[in-house]
Design a protein that fits this description.
Layout (H helix, E strand, L loop, with lengths): L9 H4 L3 H15 L3 E6 L4 H4 L4 E3 L1 H10 L5 E5 L2 H10 L5 E3 L15 H14 L5 E6 L4 H9 L3 E3 L4 H11 L2 E5 L2 H10 L7 E4 L10 H6 L2 E4 L11 H10 L4 E4 L5 H6 L2 E2 L2 H10 L5 E5 L2 H10 L4 E4 L15 H12 L11 H17 L1
Parallel strand pairs: 1-2, 1-3, 3-4, 5-6, 5-7, 7-9, 8-9, 10-11, 10-12, 12-13
Helix pairs in contact: 2-15, 4-5, 5-16, 7-16
Amino acid sequence: MLRLQAPLPDEYTLASPEELDARIAAAKATLGDRLLILGHHYQRDEVIQWADLVGDSFKLARFAADNDQATDIVFCGVHFMAESADVLTGDRQRVILPDLNAGCSMADMANIDQVEEAWDEIAAITAIDRVVPITYMNSSAALKAFVGRNGGAVCTSSNARAVLEWAFAKGDKVLFFPDQHLGRNTGHAMGYSEADMRVWDPRHELGGLEERDVKDTTFLLWKGHCSVHQRFRPEHVNQARADYPDVQIVVHPECAHDIVEMADKVGSTERIQEWVHDAPAGAVLAIGTEIHMVQRLAKQHPDKTIFTLDPLVCPCATMFRIDGPHLAWVLDNLVEGRVVNQIVVDDDTSEWARVALQRMLDIT
């Protein structure tokens, strides 16, 4: 998805870290309670240090919605997260993304035109009322609205099983997008097998499948993935176990199924945080998720050995776009009465996206 971020003035791009810190601190002090800065776990430390709350995407959006004092919410994450915050917050609140180029490659792997086309193709060969659309939180507001309109719901990595169980009480087939791995891993945890699953590739007619596949399968899994979590491979697990016989392998459910099968624990970013906090002193943990979060956990728990499962260290490139210069720029503009990079979801999309999100909350 094309988003255009204006180049920053030299006073931000050429500023030293100390100068940027001084600007941000002064702006925060001036804006006071009207400002709320939210930071996703995957953000770099120079940004996280200024966050009023750190969490996963849904936790942060809910916190913004529950905060009545703040009128200006600076979301240090990616585009779909800021959209969710705008959907859930009130009319008097404005959501700002410091860099408009901070998207999500996974979310961009499924767009509304592709999903609507897939839905029509499925409806042409099978009873569409048997199919329940489920979108992962890591998707655009337009896709959340689509599932809202069509009887589906949103899910997170922590409640995907509950949402899928709800879906199968309504129908006998799900179209799950945009992350095939979360859908597959959750399906396996529920007792389904690969024979119950097919991957829908939007680049091909009928998702690259035969009509019989579409009619008979239980899970239609969108061909999408997280570029960070898909990097973790079995050889990484084998090497970690060879280096540290007592290591615990902890991974995110966006990882491929072969990695999930080899792991000791599989959970969301929030759950991984909890497991690390609860691990005893001396524990050794190899974690399969974004590097900034892993490094931060290692600093917070010096009594434990914590390292990334992938030795090549791959950050979330889109999340990495949010930095000190962009944060200082949006805050200075707010101080001067200008709102830049506001994320606005139209009323109709917001209404149906809220329906899908509320269904998720009612389920879980």
